[in-house]
């Protein structure tokens, strides 16, 4: 199993590139950049590629509804060249609250939209469509998927899935079996909030205050109910080094091919957590 870093989009540009650099310096395999409404993760990955050698750079995820697949394919292939073909494109339909509430677009039939979008995107990335970028290798494509239909699409049309909030048990009994039913060798990339800390309850309370609203997004609500949890903050792995290391081992045993550390807590706790991530990566 590979260990990487999940870089949120709430920090400045130099901070995000610095986090990717720190991931490489600690021996991690990858750095993935997120999109909500601020930084463009594909552009950030390209800039990080110029500054940080050696590691995979990915998006987790790019929202599909606002971007035409031909345009995204051209951008992704450009970034593939710029990063020496170290780029992985994570995409997903996002949530109705963003697509309709912010962009003013219809969120009708997201599964059908995703299937059609991935079909067009993969055609363009392969060079069989309108987009041709010399020197580019088609980047791997990951799909954000939690429900049965989306997991099937991830297995059929993508190279795997990138998940958030999923526990090891959910990966073992729900995500891995459903994607494996239609594909072989699919990646299951689990982004997990982690904190090496002496105050786990306080860290969870802090995250609940910042991100608790996401608990009511329908796909997340279904996942949390499946896991017997009320709030996304309950999915945080927090405690001493042994606690966090045991959780990483549990994700590997459950079938995750990658764990992305999403660092939470104060600066000292984040530094301790990143240090542990590097130690775990070097031991694998």
Automatic annotation (TrEMBL):
Q: Name one Pfam family in it.
A: Bac_luciferase
UniProt-recorded name of the protein: Luciferase-like domain-containing protein
Task: Give the highest taxon in the source lineage.
Answer: Bacteria
MF annotations from Gene Ontology? oxidoreductase activity, acting on paired donors, with incorporation or reduction of molecular oxygen
> Which UniProt keywords are given for this protein, alphabetically ordered?
Oxidoreductase
| Positions of the Luciferase-like domain | 8-257
| Naturally occurring in which organism (per UniProt) | Kutzneria albida DSM 43870
């Amino acid at each position: 199993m590979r260990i990487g870093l999940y870089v949120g989009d709430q920090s400045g540009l130099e901070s995000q590139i610095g986090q990717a650099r720190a991931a490489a310096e600690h021996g991690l395999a990858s750095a993935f950049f997120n999109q909500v409404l601020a930084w463009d993760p594909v552009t950030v990955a390209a800039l990080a590629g110029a500054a940080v050698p050696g590691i995979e750079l990915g998006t987790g995820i790019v929202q599909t509804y606002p971007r035409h697949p031909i345009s995204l394919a051209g951008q992704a292939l450009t970034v593939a060249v710029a990063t020496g073909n170290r780029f992985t494109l994570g995409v997903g339909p996002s949530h109705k609250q963003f697509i309709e509430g912010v962009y003013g677009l219809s969120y009708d039939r997201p599964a059908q939209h995703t299937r059609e979008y991935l079909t067009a995107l993969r055609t363009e990335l392969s060079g069989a469509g309108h987009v041709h970028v010399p020197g580019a290798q088609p980047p791997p494509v990951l799909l954000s998927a939690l429900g049965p239909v989306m997991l099937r699409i991830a297995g059929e049309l993508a190279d795997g899935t990138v998940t958030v909030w999923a526990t090891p048990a959910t990966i073992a009994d729900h995500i891995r079996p459903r994607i494996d039913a239609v594909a072989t060798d699919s990646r299951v990339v689990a982004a997990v909030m982690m904190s090496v800390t002496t105050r786990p309850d306080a860290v969870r309370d802090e995250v609940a205050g910042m991100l608790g609203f996401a608990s009511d997004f329908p796909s997340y609500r279904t996942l949390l109910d499946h896991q017997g949890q009320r709030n996304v903050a309950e999915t945080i792995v927090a405690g001493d080094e042994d606690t966090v290391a045991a959780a990483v081992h549990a994700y590997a045993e459950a079938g995750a091919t990658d764990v992305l550390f999403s660092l939470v807590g104060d600066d000292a706790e984040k530094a301790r957590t990143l240090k542990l991530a590097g130690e775990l990566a070097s031991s694998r």
